[in-house]
Amino acid sequence: MDLSSAVSLTASTLRRRPADLLPFYLLGTAVPVIARMGLFVALAGTYLHYELTGRLADARRALADLDLTPPGTQDPEAVQAWAETVGPALEPLASPTAVLLVTAGTAATVVLALLTYAAVSAGQMSAVAGRVRGGRGLTAGIAGVRERWLTFLGLYVAEFLLWVGVSLLAALAVGGAFLVNPFLGAAVALFALLVGLVVLLLVRAVFAFAPAAVVVDETGVVGALEGAGGFIRSNPVDALAYLVVAVGVLVAISSAASALAFLGGGAVVALASAVVAAPALDLLKTALYGDFRGAVAPVEPVEVRLRDQFLGGVRRGWRELTAFVRRTPGLHAVAVLVGVGFGAVGWLAADPFVGAVTTSIEGRLVGHLPPTAALNFFGNNWSVAMATSFAGVALVVPALSSIAFNGVALGATAALEENLAALLAFVAPHGILEIPALFISGALGIHLGIVSWRAFRGGLSRDAFADALENAFWVLMGIGLLIAVAAAIEGFVSPYYWRPFL
């Protein structure tokens, strides 16, 4: 299969039943939400430690008489003077127990991120292989998470160790040569740089195709590396073409992210990268490797126009959203209670800092550009909705933590706002859509957590679990519609209409 045919197969596979593949890539956006549970637990433990030992009360009393607002200047002496004033008041919080808890929480977060990423990647590539073979992607992905997560973890660890090993060997060779003679050291450094780059490029090429080898050949780490190496030797042109495309996509995404970040739209690029570029590249390399192994089923081109398919998807998303809301009132009540309850916690937690630390909606709107702001609001809020929803797959708790985290942040921001009436006026027009959309995403996360628990216990078949993931995809499309309208209002209406009155 040449690159052109593989690209056509990739496009047709993505367009034909996207809900049978993309949920695993939406799950990828939830990895940080799942992983940060380790740090959240550590912070909660630290807070309890401060409260039980009286350290938090001591810090509050010390901070009550201080001006906590940083100096409005970059003058190092002013910043240092402010830090020297505030620092002693924070000394009660410098507890060895707190440091230990935060260190352990950070380590747990790193480990959770690595394990979760390996499991999600196994599901993604297994779903891709299932679609390339002509089967159902989601059921193949669910099976792949259970059966292949350890293999994917082994691949990531092996590549990391190889990169570290090559770098250390080069550093040792250069260091030894410099000890003998500076000119010899310079020559060895140049040689090591050139050879090291070639070796690392070959390592990356092999490990780029190794995940496809795992799911196509149904093999382990060693077999995957052998299969990927065999593919590159037998099809160097196809392998090189894929690598050129992958690098080109990476450069294009980085360039777009840099340009749109300046304009405020970087979140949309990150979202497109996670749920469009990533599955497309995975499909492309799996199609090339699968053809090498004779494991690619033909895919007919999609005859429906892209515009008609998009509009049909929006309509279906809205139908699934309204149906989900109607049939799960209890889950929505839980999401609202958690969000509002932790919003009150954020308000109360910020109370000691009211007057000393302030936020200003009017200050945040300085330099507001409606089109780019609307794009940024849309990308950020839909990303949060996706992550909250699919984080629930990890047995509900991460979804609840995401709702709670956002509630605390909003409650604290409102408590510290210097013009609360202006903040409420700003939030009202878009908030009537945006806030319910985020609560729906929380309810969807709770729903997926219940479903995953039932599947984990064996009370739900893989097909039923796959149906739930597919339905969640369409509900999220409906949530995206709400958030898009809310973002347009937030960008073009919310910042302006209230100014003549307040």
TrEMBL record:
The chain crosses the membrane at residues 21-48, 98-120, 153-177, 183-203, 239-257, 263-284, 331-350, 384-408, 420-453, 473-498. The keyword Transmembrane applies. InterPro entries: SpoIIM-like (IPR002798). The keyword Transmembrane helix applies. Keywords: Membrane, Transmembrane, Transmembrane helix. Pfam families: SpoIIM. This is Stage II sporulation protein M. It comes from Halorubrum kocurii JCM 14978.
